């Protein structure tokens, strides 16, 4: 697979792999099966692997980041470290409660804990997962920059930041990537964040590029039940059926190309990167090795301007807002712009 250049000279596979999908948020998976999926991703060229300290399940009564997803990825890295561009994150203490932390002491301790779980010496891309809103972002990024100076981290990233926050962070230390939700049905970042990233030479890593599975055209109501999608506006009631219109647009383009809706949705993001003039590397997650191969093939799919325009128009068909985590608009960048 070809590589793309994000910011600060970081080169990664054009399509990465989102490790959160292997931590039961979309259903159970055995550890050995999860590890096999990670190996399949690297075999297919998806060498940009994304995890976070908060992904996974905490033991009953425990507090703070679970770390089990990092431990899983660490098993992959034991044999394939030189093949992988590894990204992980810190900053979320409890997503359901909206609890975050970004002081220097915590930044350091979180990084060192991640390194221990991953069993590596250096993290390729270290993200601030969410801001501690009462603390200046410059303070947190300065603490992250110290980790670069010490060789614990190679590049810095930020998740769900506004354009102004990105500018403030970039003034402290070069930022390699912003990670935020971006897909055919979640395009709010195009208003301010994406253009600012392009202006500053920062790359973009779209999470949930397949709309938490909806844009694959294979999701059922049974898949939604009991997963993190349950209760989110776009997956409930009449919205679930209405949003099939978005999938129908992607499927129409896919039929023209002999591709799948998922491949078209990923190829659209790569095309938008060209349009906006910045490096883009979406990170779809899956529990299936077959889906890994399908997603990888999207890197070679080329859309015509007319097809991109058709897909752009699908945003007008979306019913319901994107996930705001327990109704907290400030949890995502659009809620603070």
UniProtKB/TrEMBL annotation:
Entry GO terms, CC: cytoplasm
One Pfam family per UniProt: Aldo_ket_red
Domain of life: Bacteria
InterPro entries: Aldo-Keto_reductase (IPR050791), NAD(P)_OxRdtase_dom_sf (IPR036812), NADP_OxRdtase_dom (IPR023210)
Alphabetically ordered keywords of this record: Oxidoreductase
NADP-dependent oxidoreductase domain segment(s): 14-315
GO MF, one example: oxidoreductase activity
Protein name: Aryl-alcohol dehydrogenase-like predicted oxidoreductase
Organism: Ornithinicoccus hortensis
């Amino acid at each position: 697979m070809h590589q793309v250049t994000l910011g600060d000279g970081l080169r990664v596979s054009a399509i990465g792999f989102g490790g959160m999908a292997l931590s039961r948020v979309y259903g159970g998976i055995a550890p050995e099966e999860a590890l096999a999926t990670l190996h399949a991703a690297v075999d297919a060229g998806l060498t940009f692997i994304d995890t976070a300290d908060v992904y996974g399940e905490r033991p009953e009564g425990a507090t703070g980041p679970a770390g089990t997803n990092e431990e899983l990825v660490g098993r992959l890295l034991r044999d394939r470290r030189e093949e992988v561009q590894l990204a992980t994150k810190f900053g979320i203490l409890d997503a359901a409660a909206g609890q975050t932390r970004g002081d220097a002491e915590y930044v350091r301790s979180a990084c060192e804990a991640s390194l221990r779980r991953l069993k590596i010496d250096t993290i390729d891309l270290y993200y601030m997962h969410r801001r501690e809103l009462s603390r200046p972002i410059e303070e947190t990024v300065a603490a992250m920059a110290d980790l670069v100076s010490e060789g614990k981290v190679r590049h810095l990233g930020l998740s769900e930041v506004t354009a102004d926050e990105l500018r403030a962070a970039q003034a402290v230390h070069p930022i390699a990537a912003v990670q935020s939700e971006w897909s055919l049905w979640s395009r709010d970042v195009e208003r301010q964040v994406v253009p600012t990233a392009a202006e500053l030479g920062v790359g973009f890593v779209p999470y949930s590029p397949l709309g938490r599975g909806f844009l694959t055209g294979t999701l059922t109501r049974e898949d939604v039940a009991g997963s993190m999608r349950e209760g989110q506006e776009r997956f409930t009631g009449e919205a679930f059926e209405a949003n099939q219109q978005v999938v129908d647009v992607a499927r129409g383009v896919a039929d023209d190309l002999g591709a799948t809706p998922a491949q078209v949705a990923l190829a659209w993001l790569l095309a938008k990167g060209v349009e906006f003039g910045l490096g883009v590397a979406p990170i779809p997650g899956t529990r299936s090795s077959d889906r890994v191969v399908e997603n990888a093939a999207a890197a070679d799919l080329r859309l015509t301007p007319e097809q991109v325009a058709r897909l752009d128009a699908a945003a007008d068909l979306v019913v319901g807002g994107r996930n705001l985590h327990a109704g907290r608009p400030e949890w995502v960048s659009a809620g603070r712009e």
